[in-house]
Design a protein that fits this description.
single chain, flavoprotein, Oxidoreductase, five-stranded parallel beta sheet, alpha/beta, Elongation Factor Tu (Ef-tu), domain 3, Rossmann fold, 2Fe-2S, Ubiquitin-like (UB roll), globular, 7 helices, 18 strands, 2Fe2S_fd_BS, about 20% helix
C-alpha cells in the first residue's frame, strides 16, 4: 500500500465532539485522485491505524478532508485524532481506496446517521455536480452534534437535504417508510452510520421489497459480539505448513502475530476489509460487516481480525 506524508493544514471543530482535518502535501503538490465514497488509512501518533472517509469534493486534488467523532468508547483511535493530532503536524496516510462507490442510478437516496455523513456528503457533492436526481436525509441527536450543518445548508444542493434531530419536534423526525416509498422502485440507497441506524434502515428497506443490489452500506463500527461460546481452533499456513493454535480468547490476527506472522489490520472489527485473507480449506464463522451473505457462504475468504472457524481447522493462503 502506497504511503503518503501529509500536513495537517487545518483542524476545525465542526460540531460537538466532531473535528475535521484538512490534509495536504507539505509542498502543495497534487494528491492522488479519489471518487465519492473513498476513505484513507491514517497512521496515528500512538501507533494505531484507522480509516476515515473523505468528505471534500472529489474533484479537488490539493487536499483531503476527514471528520472524526470522539467516541466515548474509543479504542484509542478517535481520542488520538482529537488529542494528539495538531495543525502543522506531518502524518502518514494511505492513498484513497473505495469500497463504497456510487453506481449510476435513475435516482439516489442518501441516508446518513451521525458521523456517517462523511462519505455521503462527498456523494451529494458529486451527484449535484452531474445534475443527478437525489435526496439526502441526515439524522443526528441534535443540531449541535450535526457536522457540516451550515455548510450543507448553504450549498447548491441544500434543498435536497433534510435534517432530522432526535431532540426536535415530531414533524421533522425521519419517517423511514415514507422516504423509502417516495424514492421509487428504481432508486439506489446508500446508508452510513452506527450499526443500529443502518440495521433500522435495512430492516425497513428489505421489508418493503428493496433488492439487495439496490442497497449499499458502510458501517463505521460493529456491535459488540457475544464471545462466551468461543472455542479454540487451528489455522494452517499454506505456504509453510505451520499449524497455529487460536485460543478461545484470541483473534486469528493476534495468534498469528504471536508467531511472527503479521496481517495488515485497521478497524479490527470486520468493517473495513483491510485484513481480508483467502481461505483454502475449512468453514468460517463470519463475524464481519464487510462481506455479503453470498460471499460469506463461499467460505473462501474471511476477516481474521474478528471472524473465527466453525471447523476445527482453517487453511489460510499465507
Amino acid at each position: 500500500m502506497t504511503q503518503l506524508t501529509v500536513k495537517v493544514l487545518q483542524k476545525k471543530q465542526e460540531a460537538l465532539d466532531i473535528a475535521s482535518f484538512e490534509l495536504a502535501r507539505a509542498d502543495g503538490s497534487p494528491l492522488p485522485g479519489f471518487s465519492a465514497g473513498s476513505h484513507i488509512d491514517v497512521e496515528l501518533p500512538n501507533g494505531l491505524v484507522r480509516q476515515y472517509s473523505l468528505c471534500n469534493d472529489a474533484t479537488e486534488s490539493h487536499r483531503y478532508r476527514i471528520a472524526v467523532l470522539r467516541d466515548p468508547k474509543s479504542r484509542g483511535g478517535s481520542n488520538a485524532m482529537h488529542d494528539l493530532v495538531k495543525e502543522g503536524d506531518l502524518i502518514a496516510i494511505s492513498e484513497p481506496r473505495n469500497h463504497f462507490p456510487l453506481v449510476h442510478a435513475e435516482r439516489t437516496l442518501l441516508l446518513a446517521g451521525g458521523i456517517g455523513v462523511t462519505p455521503l456528503l462527498c456523494m451529494a457533492q458529486r451527484l449535484a455536480a452531474i445534475g443527478a436526481d437525489f435526496s439526502m436525509h441526515y439524522s443526528t441527536r441534535s443540531k449541535d452534534r450535526t457536522a457540516f450543518h451550515d455548510e450543507i445548508a448553504q450549498s447548491p444542493f441544500a434543498a435536497k437535504v433534510h435534517f432530522h434531530f432526535d431532540d426536535g419536534g415530531a414533524a421533522q423526525m425521519l419517517d423511514i417508510a415514507s422516504v423509502l416509498r417516495a424514492a421509487g422502485d428504481k432508486a439506489h440507497l446508500y446508508v452510513c452510520g452506527p450499526a443500529g441506524y443502518i440495521n433500522f434502515v435495512l430492516q425497513h428497506a428489505e421489508g418493503m421489497g428493496w433488492a439487495k443490489d439496490q442497497i449499499h452500506l458502510e458501517y463505521f463500527s460493529a456491535a459488540p459480539q457475544d464471545t462466551t461460546g468461543d472455542k479454540a481452533f487451528e489455522v494452517k499456513i499454506a505456504s509453510s505448513g505451520r499449524v497455529i493454535q487460536v485460543a478461545a480468547d484470541k483473534s486469528v490476527t493476534q495468534a498469528l502475530a504471536e508467531q511472527g506472522i503479521e496481517v495488515l489490520t485497521s478497524c479490527e472489527q470486520g468493517v473495513c476489509g483491510t485484513c481480508i485473507t483467502r481461505v483454502l480449506e475449512g468453514e468460517c464463522d463470519h463475524r464481519d460487516l464487510y462481506f455479503t451473505d453470498d460471499e460469506k457462504a463461499k467460505h473462501d475468504q474471511f476477516t481474521p481480525c474478528c471472524s473465527r472457524a466453525k471447523s476445527k481447522l482453517l487453511v489460510l493462503d499465507l
